[in-house]
Design goal:
Elements lengths: L1 E2 L4 E8 L2 E8 L5 H7 L2 H7 L8 E6 L4 E6 L20 H5 L3 E2 L8
Antiparallel strand pairs: 1-6, 2-3, 3-5, 4-5
Length: 108
């Protein structure tokens, strides 16, 4: 098992109470690992304490990336939340802590 951060990096964005997190493979050879193991259900479970809505995954094969749109995640949104991280920028780091299996044929 390895942390997702060993094969990918991430960025976040927000709009109201919705957060989106992109997961981008450092090397395109790892895109198939992302597709197989970083599912909407797994991301929703990883953020079970904060995601109150649906998690939708968008696949971007041309850039070896996934984008997750998470509804009802930011405590009401930037202007309505007293959260220290109202924009949800730290969520990318939290997602990169997800443990995945790296098949033997995939180098880091």
């Amino acid at each position: 098992m390895v942390k997702l951060r060993e094969i990918a990096h991430s960025r976040t964005g927000d709009k109201g109470n919705t957060s989106n997190i992109s997961v981008i493979a450092y090397d395109a050879q790892h895109y198939s690992v992302l597709l197989a193991q970083v599912t909407s259900a797994r991301v929703k479970a990883h953020f079970a304490d904060i995601v109150g809505g649906e998690v939708v995954r968008y696949e971007l094969p041309n850039i070896a990336a996934l984008n997750f749109v998470m509804e009802q995640t930011l405590g009401g949104g930037v202007t309505r939340s007293l959260a220290l991280d109202a924009h949800g920028k730290s969520l990318s780091s939290a997602l990169l802590d997800l443990e995945i299996e790296l098949p033997p044929e995939h180098d880091r």
